[in-house]
């Protein structure tokens, strides 16, 4: 059984995956290559050869022993290649993402670029080098400059060193826990003008039972000193961890103070929202009354117009008695109705 399995492994050689690319040639050479492919002759390898240089981007394509300089470029998007036998059923064969562009006036042996190192400057050079082989167009005429017209630029991510920030925040909280007095100041970027006019929003006194510290304006560090503390981290990581363990309970108390501050600010926001809702409701009632007044004015104007028309008709009547009775009915409609 061992000999059988050994022979089976020799027979089952690994399959080589098929890779495809688009070959773009000048018009006269494209027709020649098309005839070579359709003829399926045995000497096809002698008439059409493709040779790539070590950089993997440049090479030489020979059509009937005529050398053409070629360059391998990246297409804007994937293209699916299909094959058919009966022109009814199509089978997908590969995803095409590159194109080999051949030219007559190109350099057959371009100078090789030196390999770059691992420093950031060399990485930037590699990116610039890759941009040279990016193809901005599709394979059809309507897709000219499609990369610039249909694909937006990739947004750059702003990476923040979160561990360093967490350590600095922890150190500042422990420093506040040791301080005699602490002052909180919340600054919103969108409300800087309002903060300058009405003062800071966060100068709130906390109770001694929750934080164990008095909130005041006595011995407080200026804003510039706090910024210097953020910029220059003097303590080492081990000291920060020991200091954080020592003042763990005090950090929790400071967190409770932060929760109380957030809760008070939320209550203020809810009060402002309710006042805004009440003003909106009052304005809606005023609008309804205004609509009713306008409708009554329109009805009054219509009644006056009708009365004027009736008076003109009465003036045209020749019978004097009928004219007098009509005027009386027009002036006193309720009395004439009772009579």
Describe this structure in words.
The protein has helices at residues 2-11, 27-39, 44-47, 120-131, 146-150, 162-178, 192-198, 208-211, 223-231, 237-246, 248-315, 320-331, 333-338, and strands at 22-24, 48-52, 58-63, 66-84, 90-103. α6 (162-178) packs across α10 (237-246). It starts with a helix and ends with a helix. The protein has 339 residues and is α+β, with helices and mostly antiparallel strands. Among the domains are: 2-116, no CATH class; 162-281, no CATH class. It is flat. Its main location: nucleus. Residues 286-320 form a coiled coil. This is TAFII55 protein conserved region domain-containing protein.
Write the layout of secondary structure elements.
Blueprint: H1 2-11, E1 22-24, H2 27-39, H3 44-47, E2 48-52, E3 58-63, E4 66-84, E5 90-103, H4 120-131, H5 146-150, H6 162-178, H7 192-198, H8 208-211, H9 223-231, H10 237-246, H11 248-315, H12 320-331, H13 333-338
Parallel strand pairs: 1-5
Antiparallel strand pairs: 2-3, 3-4, 4-5
């Amino acid at each position: 059984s061992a000999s059988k399995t050994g022979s089976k492994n020799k027979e089952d050689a690994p399959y080589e995956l098929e890779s495809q690319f688009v070959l773009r040639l000048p018009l006269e050479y494209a027709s020649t290559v098309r005839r070579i492919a359709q003829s399926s002759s045995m000497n096809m390898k002698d008439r059409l050869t493709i040779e790539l240089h070590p950089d993997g981007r440049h090479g030489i394509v020979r059509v009937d022993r005529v050398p053409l300089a070629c360059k391998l470029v990246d297409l804007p998007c994937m293209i699916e290649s299909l094959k058919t036998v009966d022109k009814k059923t199509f089978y997908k064969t590969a995803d095409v993402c590159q194109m080999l562009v051949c030219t007559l006036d190109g350099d057959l042996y371009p100078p090789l670029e030196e390999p770059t190192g691992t420093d950031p400057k060399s990485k930037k050079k590699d990116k610039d080098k890759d941009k040279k082989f990016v193809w901005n167009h599709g394979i059809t005429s309507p897709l000219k400059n499609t990369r610039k017209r249909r694909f937006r630029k990739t947004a750059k991510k702003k990476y923040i060193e979160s561990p360093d920030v967490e350590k600095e925040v922890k150190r500042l909280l422990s420093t506040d826990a040791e301080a005699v007095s602490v002052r909180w100041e919340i600054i919103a970027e969108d409300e800087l003008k309002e903060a300058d006019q009405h003062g800071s929003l966060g100068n709130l006194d906390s109770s001694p039972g929750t934080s164990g510290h008095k909130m005041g304006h006595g011995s407080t560090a200026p804003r510039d000193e706090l910024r210097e503390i953020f910029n220059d981290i003097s303590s080492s990581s081990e000291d920060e961890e020991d200091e954080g363990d020592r003042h763990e309970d005090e950090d929790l108390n400071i967190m409770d103070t932060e929760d109380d501050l957030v809760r008070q600010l939320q209550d203020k926001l809810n009060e402002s929202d309710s006042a805004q809702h009440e003003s909106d409701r009052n304005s809606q009632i005023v609008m309804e009354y205004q609509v009713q007044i306008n409708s009554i004015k329109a009805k009054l104007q219509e009644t006056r117009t009708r009365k004027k028309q009736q008076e003109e008709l009465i003036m045209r009547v020749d019978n004097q008695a009928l004219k007098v009775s009509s005027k009386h009915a027009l002036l006193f409609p309720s009395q004439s109705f009772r009579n």
